[in-house]
Predict the structure.
Amino acid sequence: MARSLVLLSLVLSLTACGVVETGAVAASTAASKAEEARQAQKTEARVREQLDAASKQAADQRNAAEAAAQ
């Protein structure tokens, strides 16, 4: 009986370690994905700013060319 209790407590403790480890891995993965999402948003904002600047530059050049043609 005592041997069964020792074996049962060992199995339960190992199972609990697996659960805790799985939870830690899930939390770590979630934090990593959240950081990736933040970086993606920053990259998107930077690209939008670059596109807006390029669009404005093209419009300025068109306006300058039209003004010079008149």
